[in-house]
Design brief:
The complex is a heterodimer. By secondary structure, chain A is of the alpha/beta class. Chain A has a six-stranded parallel β-sheet with strand order 5-4-3-6-7-8, with helices on both faces. Chain A has a six-stranded parallel β-sheet with strand order 11-10-9-12-13-14, sandwiched between helices. A four-stranded antiparallel β-sheet of chain A has the order 15-18-16-17. Chain B is mainly alpha-helical. Classes of the chains: A alpha/beta, B mainly alpha. The interface between A and B is medium-sized, with 21 and 16 residues.
């Protein structure tokens, strides 16, 4: 890459340099040949050295005068001619060099080089994020918050400027290029040993598809997560083994349906996927009854499908029923006028979903509907993240923001893979299971969203614990729930899931005996995972935690004395 | 026929022949070596160097390197000449001429290598 840049410069500088050499050669030679005279008037030619000296200060318009002796008229004539020619040649050469440096292709090459070097130097695990729009931005921000590295590719320079101005605590290399081209993915470190995965978050489904398939083929072991807007693309992506496909509309509609079905389960989802340290959300209680859905686009369709699946009846309002292929009983209109809403019997409905793709209309629908029926459950779709302030001011029950919906799912997929398993299994549990877990977590978490982490009983991550179980001694899970400094004190953690081989156990009890290779998903307050570290690395801490005895201090001192 | 190749080969061969012409003669006899010829050799060599800029092949890189070597030695020869005539004022004595010609001889070898490489490249293309 670097060589190409150099060769490009050299090649483009050929013509200007040749012109300079010719002009210098001709004018120096001419100056030497022109008859002159020395101080005493005897005929003499200038030497090459003097001629070169004179041309040097003449061509660069410095003009020291007639050195070393006054010129003859023939020499003056020649110098006059060469001055014009050589100055023009210099201007041309310098102009060409500056034009070359300002050249878009060359600057892009420089940028690419810089980017490739930055990527090569990354020594922390990182993900390649393709597309830095609302979604990509939200994902990158939260990834950085969780100490995951990111590399950004986007085709729009303005967005990369946003990235630069973002002021993230660590540097995120960004490249302005088409992520759909496999070469650019390689440049972004697809074959880098620390590259964990590729997140295709572009607006265009086709581009995402191309990214997914390139990543799958070029680097089969890398995780690929894609955003898809249509079911068609989704199926296509799934066909070649994309690890996860996220459809923001389905994701949101699914959550809404979950909230209807089981508010506690929904709350559990919310808590576990929230950014750690943010205040815990309250329970959402969407009412059952008839819902009005305004806008029958991809979002409206997804919501309708999931609500109907939950046994909730819906009334659709759509301004263009033909284009959206709406059902026959659709009410034609935008939903922003009271007439249309009345026609949809808004006064009898329990909730409204403003799901058009224009933010102003969505807000207008909400405001009008609220006037007609103040008890409505209000859900709106926010298309542009710039409108955060007004959507907050509208005091809605639920806002569908594409970027947020996607970034949360992605984060749970990449930060704690076990969480995905946990949430999947939890959905099959009963309502009261979720309720008791919520109560338990409320006690432990202290009002903020939990940190989530995985403890694995492996040689690398938990040497002492692994040796303990390898030695045939029992190691109940309780040793990770108590404070290694003070056994009586419980750590503020909840063991959520135990993974042993291919089997999962939800909410493992404290008496469960751990085995080598087990993975345990924990949720808890910040800093708790650090406290557990001691128990994982120090056999004496395990002994104390399990039996309550401190091993004889004397032995420690004796051992120390031996070392001295 | 490629006009670019013609110009390219022309300057490389011209550089070699001019260099040889300057080199020819008794090594320390100033009368056998002309200052105008040295000037011509330097100019032609510089042009040949610039013509080799931006060749991405292995051969192009080696050709550029030999040219740069020749430039370096010829410029050194010109500097020695300038130093003797203008700064020390001794004029071109046989010792000075000997130094200049041995430097030019070095440049000649580099130029010969250039031409050999050129010939190799051309014959390789024929096959």
């Amino acid at each position: 890459m670097k060589d190409t840049t150099l060769f490009l410069i050299l090649r483009r500088m050929r013509a200007p340099l040749l012109v300079l050499i010719w002009v210098y050669a001709v004018s120096v030679l001419g100056l030497v040949l022109m008859p002159g005279a020395d101080i005493d008037g005897r005929p003499q030619h200038l030497s090459f050295f003097h001629a070169f000296y004179i041309m040097t200060y003449t061509a660069t318009t410095t003009g020291f005068g007639e050195l070393p002796v006054p010129f003859s008229d023939a020499q003056r004539l020649w110098v006059t001619l060469s001055l014009y020619v050589s100055v023009v040649a210099w201007l041309y050469a310098i102009g060409a060099l500056i034009a070359l440096l300002r050249d878009k292709a060359l600057r892009q090459l420089f940028e690419q080089n810089r980017f490739a070097i930055q990527v090569r130097r990354l020594n922390e695990p990182f993900y390649i994020v393709c597309g830095y729009g609302d979604t990509g931005g939200a994902v990158v921000r939260s990834m950085i918050e969780r100490r995951l590295g990111a590399v950004v590719i986007d085709g729009d320079q303005n967005r990369l400027n946003d990235l630069m101005l973002e002021n993230l605590p660590v540097h995120v290399p960004g490249l302005c290029a088409d992520a759909g081209q496999p070469g650019n993915l390689n440049l972004a470190g697809l074959d880098h040993p620390r590259c964990r995965g590729v997140l295709a978050l572009c607006e265009d489904d086709q581009v995402n598809l191309k990214i997914a398939i390139s990543a799958r083929l070029l680097s089969p072991g890398t995780m690929v997560i894609c955003r898809a807007q249509s079911h068609d693309t989704e199926a296509n992506m799934a066909s070649f083994g994309t690890d996860a496909i996220i459809n923001p509309f389905d994701t949101f509609a699914d959550r809404l349906a979950l909230a209807l079905h089981s508010p506690d389960m929904h709350l559990l989802h919310e808590w576990l996927t929230a950014i750690p340290g943010t205040p815990l959300r309250e329970r959402l209680n969407p009412p059952r009854g008839t819902w009005v859905i305004c806008g029958y686009g991809r979002f409206g369709k997804a919501v309708q499908r999931y609500l109907n699946y939950e046994g909730v009846s819906t009334v659709i309002i759509e301004s263009d029923p033909k284009k959206t292929r709406a059902p026959k009983d659709v009410i034609v209109g935008r939903g922003t006028e009271a007439v249309t809403l009345r026609e949809a019997h808004i006064e009898k409905a329990v909730g409204i979903v403003a799901g058009t793709d224009i933010d102003a209309n969505n807000l207008s629908i909400i405001v009008t509907a609220r006037e007609l029926n103040p008890r409505l459950f209000l859900v709106a779709r926010q298309n542009d993240s710039e409108n955060d302030a007004i959507f907050q001011a509208a005091r809605l029950d639920l806002v569908m923001q594409r970027a947020r919906a996607i970034s949360r799912r992605i984060l749970s997929l990449i930060t704690v893979p076990l969480l995905t398993d946990f949430l999947r299994l939890a959905r099959h549990q009963k309502q009261d299971w979720a309720q008791s877990l919520i109560e338990c977590m409320r006690l432990e978490l202290g009002g903020v969203a939990p940190d989530l982490w995985t403890v694995a009983i492996t040689e690398e991550l938990a040497p002492a614990a692994r040796e303990w179980v390898q030695g045939g001694k029992a190691l109940p899970l309780s040793f990770l729930v108590r404070d290694p400094h003070e056994r009586e004190r419980r750590l503020h953690v909840v063991p959520l899931l135990l993974k042993r081989g291919k089997e999962h156990e939800l909410l493992p009890s404290e008496s469960t005996e751990l085995m080598s290779g087990d993975q345990v998903l924990f949720g808890g307050q910040a800093g708790m995972s650090r406290r557990q570290q001691r128990a994982l690395h120090d056999a004496r801490a395990i002994h104390y935690l399990l039996s309550g005895e401190t091993q004889p201090e004397g032995a420690v001192w004796r051992w120390l004395a031996q070392r001295r | 026929m490629n006009i670019e190749k013609v110009v390219f080969s022309f300057f490389i061969v011209l550089a070699l022949t001019l260099n040889f012409g300057f080199f020819l003669g008794e090594i320390d006899n100033p009368e056998h070596h002309n200052v105008y010829e040295l000037f011509a050799v330097i100019v032609v060599n510089l042009i040949a160097t610039v013509l080799k800029f931006g060749e991405r092949t292995q051969m192009g890189a080696v050709l550029l390197a030999t040219s740069l070597v020749a430039d370096l030695e010829l410029l050194a020869a010109a500097l020695v000449w300038t130093f003797a005539v203008h700064i020390q004022g001794t004029g071109v004595t046989p010792e000075v001429m000997g130094t200049i010609i041995s430097l030019a001889g070095g440049a000649l070898v580099a130029n010969i290598i250039s031409v050999i490489l050129l010939v190799i490249e051309i014959s390789a293309q024929r096959r």
